[in-house]
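Following up on my earlier message about zinc ion. Here are the inputs again, as you asked, copied directly from the submission form:
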Amino acid sequence: MTDPLDITAPNLARAELLEGGDRAGNHGVFKLTTTKGRTIFALGIPQDGPAPQGPTWVYLVEGSGWSMVDAGDTSAYKHIVADMAKTGLQPRQVQRVFITHGHWDHDGGVAEFCRETGAEVWAHEAYEPLKAFDGWLRQGEAHRLLKLGRQSSPQTGEWAEGRQWQQRYRDHEAIRKTIKVTHPVWDGRRCGDIVCWLTPGHTADELTILFDGFMFTGDHVLPEITPHPSVKTTYSAELQDSLPALYRDASKQQGLDVYLHSLLRVAKLGDMATILPAHRLLNREKTNLVSAHRASQIMEHHLQRMNRLVQILGQDKQLIHHLTVHLFDHRKLEGGNYSSAMTETVAHLEFMDDCGDLMIEGDGNVSWKGTWHYKEKMMALMDSARRS
Ligand SMILES: [Zn+2]
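Thanks, got it. Here's what our run produced:
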């Protein structure tokens, strides 16, 4: 067994484990003290349902009074109350909640938490209008490559289970409609010493939050696992009208290219920032306190994925279903994971296609043109991360 407190980070003065939690980190509670003498509590809040990514790490930050980063899923409130008792804080002491992004395991608990405590809600200034954006529908019906991908997939139970996940999303959508953002966040918006960055790509409304040399990354940068990149999308005219002008062009808010550029921004911080992720802070008795260099590793991972696609394609034509099955290990293709695996495959194909390296036929067959523009583009991005 490793010591979960065997950790160092440039801006960490002290770490205490107030509660060990289970092997996945559920109900684990950390107290971190920054070198400026301020406290950050990390709570491993369990999820209601299968959670291969582990609990959602919810953070309590001693900045401008007490702030909370994320609120777990729709079942989280009772767990937050129970775990917060170990910190000596009361929920009502939390003055504001920052939402890192609009996924159910991050903002699902916000409505109840704020109803009970009266805390303010800080979220990306596109968060509120984007609640009307149904990613599932839009991706399924309007995305050319995803449509081809789904057509190429045999109708098995995989999609049915995918629909169960969709039900979870729909329940969450209903609850999040009741969240009222009191403080819309733009890039660089501050709350005392807390600074917010907009880092779209995993979702269009992703925030990363800097405080005392720590960076709360939501699902933008995670240790152990690689966050799911979005695919490009389009917004309806109505949705565009409701969005602040900066965010109306959906192609600048979603897709792998957007995600990589947001990663680059974090990667440039290198050793200067320590990542406090929304998942996998503690897993199997190991604490994952990584630096912002982790963002470069994730960029490298995506380059490898595209290299692998080139290998699989070789001289042949392949359907997107076959590429998905070859790219992901069988375990990762079960149940609702199949749809995420396919969208992730599509995110990579889309990037390579935009670079001009692929031929995609009307029947869904993909072939490689033998060019390496995607690789040149990736190398340039990664060089830029290294140069800083
Ligand atoms: Zn997410």
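One observation from looking it over: The two ends are 37 Å apart (CA to CA). Hope that helps, and feel free to reply on this thread.
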